[in-house]
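Propose amino acids for all 473 sites.
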């Protein structure tokens, strides 16, 4: 009796939300089923089920197709920034530093974005110029590794439209869940729950990864089943336990919002789910995180041997860089513990850079650390995509940038703290037939474990300023 009453008031509530939002009829949420949740989440991004497996299966740790493109941070001399050219050359309106607030802080103003504001915004040709982008110190070593801009050139208008869509719950079937519900700036563009929580409180079987610094990676998801950010963005909309919508219903719903109708038609020429995905992907490409104490330390430690007095005489330009690098390193210090941790992380002792390497501290490949492999029915991860048993239980290496801000950890959110993660590596992961051969017992002391954690904490950089509230009426 009580159950029926609760159920019917739930339905009533859903109906109310719906008529209010003016969207299509809600589909009944799929009942929660923890046993299959992991697989549902992994399988259900229709259209993504058969990604270019043949091409992507190259990306496992056995093949090194991409290593030449991933410049290890430490070995990269280019990370020494050129003198600030911004003042003279950088004034062209299409040159931007990703992560700077002008790109993601929204159309200036307060309250909902009005049609009037959007018209003025769209009439400004500057907002449709293809942007020439620069990456902040640290990530800039990955300039050659940037993905997706040729297919979907970046403009201010696309980034702003993508921002609105990213925070708009009208993408979901019951208008309760937005991308930000599981990837909110206040939670490190991820979510501090073990699993993503979608419409009707349904849970998937995987932890929400961070949605920043995606511009340096093409294959998305823990198992890399989406070949691009565009493809990824379409997934959650029709995932029954995330946004529970259909692409058709989502397009209909958004079309009914005049500001979206206007923006999408003006920017993309036609209103489609692909246009929605392109805008969201553009916004995500603008979400890059700024230099961390590690980056400042790394840059200066490669200049430390230089003699400032000599430089001043011989090379005033390099001297200016030296002075900036020194001041930045002093203003954002790494603790002694973090410095020791860096040596362990990059050295043979920790061996972390066997996988967490390059400007975004990930090789973008798939490895089995044994996480969750003790379960009766483990999440098979990458194998789902490649259909190759050697990929069983392998997951994409996550970035270490800002990792201190995004607990819990691992694809299943099973580890609560960075220390717990370090303990996992120290014991050599969990033995299983597919364990990566790069995972070995480390025999770290308590101090060394603490040092590794301190180093990872020092990989926290500044977040882009993002307007989260201003959406179209
Ligand atoms: C209900 C929670 C939830 C919602 C809503 C959601 N996501 Fe996710 N997101 C996740 C989870 C969980 C994963 C990992 C799933 C997997 O790997 O199988 C993920 C993965 C991603 C990734 C891949 C990151 C990487 O490192 O590979 C991106 C990017 C992303 N989501 C962006 C979005 C966008 C854009 C939206 C809105 C259109 C969105 N998400 C909506 C929970 C959510
Ligand atoms: C063999 C490749 C490999 C090596 C070596 C490696 N990692 Fe990882 N790391 C991964 C993969 C893959 C995951 C995700 C595994 C999963 O979820 O099943 C991961 C996850 C993590 C996470 C959790 C991040 C998150 O967002 O959930 C942290 C922190 C981390 N590693 C730190 C380290 C440290 C510190 C070392 C060195 C002691 C190290 N890793 C060595 C591949 C590696």
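Proposal:
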């Amino acid at each position: 009796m009580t159950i029926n009453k609760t159920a019917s008031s739930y339905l009533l509530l859903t109906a109310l939300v719906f008529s209010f939002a003016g969207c299509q009829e809600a589909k009944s949420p799929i009942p929660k089923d923890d046993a299959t949740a992991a697989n549902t989440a992994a399988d259900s991004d229709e259209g993504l089920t058969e990604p270019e497996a043949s091409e992507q299966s190259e990306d496992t740790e056995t093949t090194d197709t991409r290593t030449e493109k991933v410049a290890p941070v430490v070995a990269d001399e280019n990370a020494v920034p050129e003198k600030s050219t911004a003042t003279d050359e950088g004034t062209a309106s299409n040159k931007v530093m990703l992560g700077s607030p002008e790109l993601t802080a929204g159309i200036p103003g307060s309250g909902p974005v009005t049609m009037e504001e959007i018209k003025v915004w769209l009439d400004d040709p500057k907002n449709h110029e293809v942007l020439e982008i620069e990456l902040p110190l640290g990530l800039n070593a990955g300039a050659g590794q940037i993905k997706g801009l040729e297919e979907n050139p970046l403009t201010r208008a696309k980034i702003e439209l993508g921002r609105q869509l990213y925070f708009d719950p009208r993408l979901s079937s019951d208008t309760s869940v937005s991308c930000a519900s599981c990837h909110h700036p206040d939670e490190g563009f991820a979510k501090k729950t073990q699993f993503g929580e979608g419409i009707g409180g349904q849970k998937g079987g995987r932890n929400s990864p961070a949605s920043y610094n995606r511009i340096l990676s093409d294959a998305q998801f823990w198992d890399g089943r989406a070949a691009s950010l565009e493809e990824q963005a379409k997934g959650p909309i029709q995932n029954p336990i995330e946004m529970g919508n259909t692409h058709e219903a989502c397009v209909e719903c958004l079309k009914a919002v005049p500001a979206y109708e206007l923006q999408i038609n003006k920017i993309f020429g036609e209103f489609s789910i692909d246009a929605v995905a392109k805008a969201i992907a553009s916004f995500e490409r603008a979400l890059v995180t700024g230099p961390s104490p590690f980056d400042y330390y790394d840059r200066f430690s490669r200049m430390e041997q230089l003699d400032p007095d000599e430089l001043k005489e011989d090379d005033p330009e390099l001297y200016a860089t030296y002075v900036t690098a020194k001041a930045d390193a002093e203003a954002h210090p790494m603790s002694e513990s973090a410095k020791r941790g860096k040596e362990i992380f990059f050295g043979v002792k920790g061996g972390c850079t066997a996988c967490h390497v390059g400007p975004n501290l990930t090789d973008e490949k798939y490895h089995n650390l044994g996480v969750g492999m003790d379960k009766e029915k483990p999440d098979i991860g990458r194998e789902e995509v490649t259909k190759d048993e050697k990929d069983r239980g392998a997951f994409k290496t996550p970035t270490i940038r800002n990792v201190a801000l995004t607990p819990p950890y691992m694809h299943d959110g099973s580890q609560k703290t960075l220390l717990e993660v370090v303990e996992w590596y120290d014991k050599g992961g969990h033995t299983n037939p597919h364990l990566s051969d790069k995972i070995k017992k480390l025999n770290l002391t308590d101090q060394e474990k603490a040092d590794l954690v301190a180093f990872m904490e020092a990989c926290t950089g500044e977040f882009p300023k993002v307007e989260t509230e201003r959406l179209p009426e």
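The chain has 18 helices and four strands. The radius of gyration is 23 Å.
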